[in-house]
Amino acid sequence: MKKAIILAAVLLTGCSAPFGDTSEEAEKAQQKDEKVLIDAPHYLQKPELERGCEVTSLAMLLNEAGVETDKMTLAEEINRVPFEENGYKGNIHEGFVGNMRTLDEPGLGAYHEPVAELAENYLPGKIKDLTGSDFDKVFEQLDDGRPVWVVITSTYGVLPESEWETWETKDGPVKVTYRMHAVLVTGYDKEHIYANDPLKEKNTQYPKDEFIAGWEQIGKQAITYME
């Protein structure tokens, strides 16, 4: 199994853990001074897909897992729902809402369910949906050399309540925000999260606490794969 590159910081303490620490506690303490970074593929969503962050980040994850595919293929295959139909807004839990290609027509995005469903078509039985778990589960995957697809706010932090609205869908009310984004998390260090951002550069660096707080606010959505 491919492992992440771990860059251990030089510790100013001795080589043994403080008296009374268990090996597990010592390992967790040491991890705070490490840098884990995965060399996963990086693709940009633009110019073809103005709202295509979810499928572009999924393409990165699948290719890292050894599956040859691309964002345009995934854009055609992901389940779609209309932006609005019969007086109801589209359910972001069921499929990609609205137009993915252009901002000239209404659209929103997709939550983890349709993305995980699409990923299962490529890696049957091997997709691991971590949604609802704490970010420690994401760290565990990164430590094992697997990047993680996540939904994050587009500010990479907590949004004010004014940025949220409740849509009436045919399945009931759904809370959404237009300030949403999807990236592939590729690593971390003591103060940062690293991600292949389809709107930015490979292994873009973000403040760890702010990133995790924004991720929690939008539902703790995370997907990876099992080897």
Account of the 3D structure:
The protein has 227 residues and is an alpha+beta fold. It has one domain: Cysteine proteinases (Cathepsin B, Chain A, Alpha-Beta Complex), CATH 3.90.70.10. It is built from six helices and 14 strands. It has helices at residues 23-31, 53-64, 71-77, 112-122, 136-143, 208-217; strands spanning 5-8, 34-37, 80-81, 84-85, 88-89, 96-97, 127-129, 148-153, 164-169, 172-177, 180-188, 192-196, 204-207, 222-225. Strands 1, 2, 7, 8, 11, 12, 13 and 14 form an eight-stranded antiparallel β-sheet that branches. A hairpin with a 7-residue loop joins strand 12 (192-196) and strand 13. Helix 2 (53-64) crosses helix 3. The protein is globular. The protein starts with a strand and ends with a strand.
Q: Total helix count?
A: 6
Question: What proportion of the residues is helical, as a percent range?
Answer: 25-40%
Taking the sheet with the most strands, its summary is: 8 strands, antiparallel
Q: Give the N-terminus to C-terminus distance in angstroms.
A: 7 Å
List SSEs in N-to-C order: EHEHHEEEEHEHEEEEEEHE
- Please, how many domains? 1
Q: Which structural class do the helices and strands define? A: alpha+beta
What best-fitting shape do the alpha-carbon axes yield? globular
Assign the CATH class.
Alpha Beta
CATH topology: Cathepsin B, Chain A
Kindly summarize this structure in a few lines.
The protein has six helices and 14 strands. The chain is α+β, with helices and mostly antiparallel strands. It has a single domain, classed as Cysteine proteinases (Cathepsin B, Chain A, Alpha-Beta Complex), CATH 3.90.70.10.
